[in-house]
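note to self — DONT lose this again. spent like an hour looking for the file last time. sequence + predicted structure for the chain T wanted, 301 res
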Amino acid sequence: KGYEVIERFLNDVNTFLKPNGIILIVFSSLTKKEKVDEFIRNDLLEFELLEKQHYFFEDLYVYKIIKSEILKTLEKNGINNVRHFAKGKRGVVFVGKYNNKKVAIKIKNPESSAVLRINNEIKILKILNKKGIGPKLSSYGKDYLIYEFVEGINISDFLESTIKNNPIKTTSINGKNIENNNKINGKNKKMIIINIIKKIMNQMFIMDKLKINKEEMSHPQKHIIIDEKNNPILIDFERAHYTIKPGNVTQFADFLIGNNILQALKNKKIIIDKNKIIQLSKKYKKQQNKRNFNSILKQIL
């Protein structure tokens, strides 16, 4: 494409560039300027256009590139080998090494108009981590948060692939594909699925009791990851907020009775009465207590 060498260079340059070091680079518009700009942002670098000249059929650009303040802060606090991982509507996720462990680093998406989303996620994770919910928060700062990197497969792919005996395509934070680490024993598939659903529902109930609404639980594909030990991990709490009547339990119940998941569960002899779940969910919504929650749980399990 013409930009591969620049991409490889920028991906590795942070290891060698000093905190206040400078990169000078010349490239052509034939290299696709928008791609070069993307690579720079993805490696938490910043650039300044020093000069542009037009020659025949191309433009030549001279860039001055430096480390961003957020990257300098991360490296100063012991986070190294920072690499772009995924981009969401409100946040951009990077991976790196912290205390010799792989971690996820989330910063605000500069294109997002949302405010204080990173601060909100930090606050929510502090509370939920005490209840064993969410990836473990390792560290945080004014404009970023660092938490354990969760490897696994999203909930929909896990249920459908496991139940249909299809190969599992594993994913991780923000739904990006990674290597397959989940190993499922055929004889235990049904019990594993039931146990996972039970664990998720219990986490939903805890959040309901805490009056924290996660959001997106009716479509949790990118928000629940099943790790290699078949433990469900909830991720992405940017939109989580306090409310008098949170809907975590009912939203996830709604997901389970969706046509695709309902049929997939049925194929594995896990039968859920859709109408009964709707009826019990309405009752739970009016009075979110343990008794009404257990009524839903019994129907599912």
